[in-house]
Amino acid sequence: MEANDQSESIILYAPDSRAQIISPQRHQTDARWTFWLVVAGISTTFGAAVPTGYNIGVINAPANFIKIWCNETLFETYGSILSEDSLNTFWAAVVSIFLVGGVIGSLGGAWVADKLGRKKSFLCCGFLLVLGGVCFQFCRAIGSIELLMLGRLLVGLAAGLTTSTVPMYLTELAPINLRGALGVLCSLGVTGGVVVGQIMSLEEVFGTEELWQFALSFYVILVITFFVPYHWLPESPKYLFCIKEKPDEAINEIKRLGGQNVRDDYVKQQIEAMRNIDDISDQENPNSKRKPKQRSIWSVISDPTLTLPLILVCALQGGQQLSGINAVFFYSVSIFESVGLSSVDAKFANLGAGCLNLFVAFFTPTLMRKTDRRFLILLSCSMCAVFLFGLTFVVYFIEDVVWFSYASVCAVLLYILFYQLGLGPIPYFIGSELFEVGPRPAAMALGSLASWGCNFLVAILFTTLQKAWGAFVFLPFTVTCVLLTLLLKLYLPETRGRHISSIVPLVANGFRSKPLASRL
Fold first, then answer.
1. How confident is the model at residue 8 (pLDDT cuts 50, 70, 90)?
2. Phi and psi, residue 255, nearest 5°
3. Strand 19-22, strand 10-13: pairing
4. pLDDT tens digits for 177-209?
5. For the chain, what is the total number of helices (H) and then of strands (E)?
6. What pLDDT was estimated at residue 317?
7. Burial (CB count within 10 angstroms: exposed 0-12, middle 13-18, buried 19+), residue 457
């Protein structure tokens, strides 16, 4: 079975098993940005991805005000006051329950995506986000700490569900040459949401003793606004055809997504491609038992043909968190202070670093459409390793060399730049390019689970390790980036512009696979 290069023809399989070649010119004529593709991208990005990032970025600035309120409420409700250490532990639980929700939401993503559909998965995200916002808005008026924690759990569930289902929904709506551009919208939304959350939680906005509950719940306006077109959004044609076995509805959705001038032959090609995706495993392994269309998480884990792609997805999603991005942002305030900035100015400089992260993210849809995934992710991982090691070195000797303060700032900014080129966006959607429709929800759920689990691990351990190791706290992140670079160098196939039928066989033999040997 041949793998087509991103600039070559797209290979589809007809019932007689003979390859049909679709010329890139004809494919690109029909595969363009259309009204419903744009609406679906905007609605999911601002209705789910941005609120997810918002809840990550909003909680830090007003933390002291919320902790004071928590202690006062505990005294009024239970007649007890927490010590400073106990209050910090309690606050860590309030913050971390969001990550626990992310883990649970990720595990539920596979079931929701298959049973309710990709579109209704998005609706579930919005429902949980609105419920969480209501909890935030009224927890202070009611005087309920439990309501605050319930809100954090609900938005965590929504976040896990968002990262496991929204990229899959968008990539299944997109034609091949726009798959990466739509796939990174979730990453772009999360990145932008973090920045918006940081801005709305400033003391100059809602981050005050009187208004912090508005800071926590402000994102609900986005959710409600961008769910207005939900009723008219298309369902994934691949889900309708391959999972629900409703070819007529799938054809209608392909026509809607293709726009008014969509060609009949393009629709037929899409249907033919989906019809034969399920036959690829049989063509490669004619004596194997046919797999069910809906795959449980356990069946995906235990399937040897899916071991390598699953490892790649989980390594990328987990490695994204273990690459040190949150640690760098945590440490960057003290780094900015070391060059002479006041505490307030350093916090604004840290916000500026977040804006740089967002600025680079704006270019990722174009990068994903025009540049190979392998090149971007290998460049990103390797350069992140270089700048993390450099950051470790200069921070350790920052008191001995005057200009090392400025070198540390440069290392932080360059790390953020290269992180967002590959490690930031690609892990979100790579599972949709390595897995067929059947096992895809389970694989995306496991990848999201790895992401939120590693995020939780960093949140729990980083402060302790930072106190014990100082500047050397960046070394584990450096090692992660190095190991991830080696794994991807050996086993990650190029997926840009390739049909899933040409990708799946390249990684079906575990670590004996030779994904690069089949490149044209």
1. very low
2. -65, -40
3. antiparallel
4. 888 899 999 999 999 999 999 999 988 899 899
5. 26, 2
6. 95
7. middle
Q: Which amino acid is at 208?
A: T
At 36 the pLDDT is 94
- Quote the distance between the C-alpha of residue 127 and its chain's center: 19
DSSP notation for 366-435:
HHHHHS-HHHHHHHHHHHHHHHHHHHHHHHHTTTT-TTHHHHHHHHHHHHHHHHHHTTTTHHHHHHHHHS
| Eight-class DSSP state of 233 | P
Q: What number of residues does the chain have?
A: 520
Res 4 pLDDT > 70: no
C-beta separation of 159 from 55 below 8 A: yes
Structure tokens at 254: 């392909």
Q: Is 260 exposed, middle or buried (0-12, 13-18, 19+ CB in 10 A)?
A: exposed
Which positions ≥6 away from 180 have C-beta within 8 Å? 365, 368, 369, 373, 429, 496
pLDDT band at 471; cut points 50, 70, 90: confident
Instruction: Name the residue type at position 448.
Output: S
The dihedral built from the CA positions of residue 104, 106, 111 and 116, taken in this order, carries a sign that is positive
Q: Which residues pair with 19 in a beta bridge?
A: 13
Distances (CA, A) of 369 to 98, 122, 175, 183: 33, 24, 11, 10
pLDDT value of position 296: 86
User: Can you give 445-484 as a three-state secondary structure string?
Assistant: HHHHHHHHHHHHHHHHHHHHHHHHHHHHHHHHHHHHHHHH
Model confidence, pTM: 0.86
Distance CA 314, CA 452 (A): 11
Beta bridge partners of 11: 21
Token pair recorded at residue 363: 């270019």
User: What are 330's two structure tokens?
Assistant: 């945590």
